[in-house]
């Protein structure tokens, strides 16, 4: 894509990014990304687990934190506040391998979660629950030994649910990741770069853009040049969100007012 286009839409996005000044593009950075082409054709709704929102569980925690904060120094309280803010927004990305007939179905092989500043909070390979027909290594970066020594699916699934509880989830084509994990997340707490209409309109004329294309257009980064890496892909999605977060949140507020 020609990122130097002077179209009105591109200028509008550029103006937004300059105004936000979240971070400068790094055209020399080469990162890996994740396999978003694996379609989830056998999504099992009956096994879906809903990640609880913060509203139902935060009252007791808030009271306890208030008591603890009363005895903290100002600098300690500030550090705690900054950490909480970093971890309020989490980006997730998964890698899949092929199972079923001709390896056409996707099965979770790796899941990575980073916080708002790109720190890795979780990065685990998952043991296969079905015979793997296609490791999709050229895209997924997954090899037999990676998942043979991985953790049990249920263990990882529970860790992800706990980590995402009450958080805003950022990612690209998150429907595929959530389906692979067999979990749900509140729609109001999802920021999916593949379906944010203003961005799709500017970058891909309203069509669903790839994360690779978005990273180049918004960040000036070239990703997914070899075997993909879910940590780097999650970081790319979070960086895109950070760059246009103010406009994105205003867009959502405006939509909520009209519904």
Automatic annotation (TrEMBL):
Region Disordered: which residues? Answer: 49-75
Chief localisation class: nucleus
**Source taxon at top rank:** Eukaryota
List, alphabetically, the GO terms of the cellular component aspect: nucleus
Describe the location of the Exonuclease domain by residue ranges. 88-250
* Any one GO MF annotation of this record: 3'-5' exonuclease activity
List UniProt keywords, sorted A-Z: Exonuclease, Hydrolase, Nuclease, Nucleus
Compositional bias (Low complexity) at which positions? 49-73
Subcellular location per UniProt equals: Nucleus
User: Where does this protein have coiled-coil stretches?
Assistant: none
Which family does this protein fall into? Belongs to the REXO4 family.
Entry-linked PANTHER family: RNA EXONUCLEASE 4, RNA EXONUCLEASE REXO1 / RECO3 FAMILY MEMBER-RELATED
Official protein name in the record: RNA exonuclease 4
């Amino acid at each position: 894509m020609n990122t130097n286009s002077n179209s009105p839409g591109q200028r509008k996005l550029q103006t937004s990014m300059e105004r936000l000044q979240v971070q400068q593009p790094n055209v020399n950075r080469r990162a890996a990304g994740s396999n978003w082409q694996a379609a989830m054709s056998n999504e099992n709704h009956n096994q879906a687990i809903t990640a609880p929102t913060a509203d139902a569980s935060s009252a007791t925690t808030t009271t306890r934190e208030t008591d603890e904060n009363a005895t903290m120094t100002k600098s300690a309280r500030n550090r705690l506040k900054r950490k909480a803010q970093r971890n309020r927004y989490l980006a997730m990305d998964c890698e899949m391998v092929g199972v079923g007939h001709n390896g056409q179905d996707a099965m979770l092989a790796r899941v990575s979660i980073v916080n708002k500043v790109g720190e890795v909070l979780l990065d685990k390979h998952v043991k296969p629950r079905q015979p793997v027909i296609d490791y999709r290594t050229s895209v997924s970066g997954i090899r037999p030994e990676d998942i043979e020594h991985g953790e049990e699916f249920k263990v990882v699934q529970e860790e992800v649910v706990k980590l995402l509880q009450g958080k805003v989830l950022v990612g690209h084509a998150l429907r595929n990741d959530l389906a692979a994990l067999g979990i749900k997340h509140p729609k109001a707490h999802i920021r999916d770069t593949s379906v944010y209409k203003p961005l799709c309109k500017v970058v891909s004329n309203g069509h669903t853009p790839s994360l690779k294309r978005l990273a180049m257009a918004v960040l000036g980064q070239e990703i997914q040049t070899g075997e993909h890496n879910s940590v780097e892909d999650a970081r790319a999605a979070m960086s895109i969100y950070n760059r246009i977060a103010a406009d994105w949140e205003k867009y959502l507020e405006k939509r909520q007012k009209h519904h």
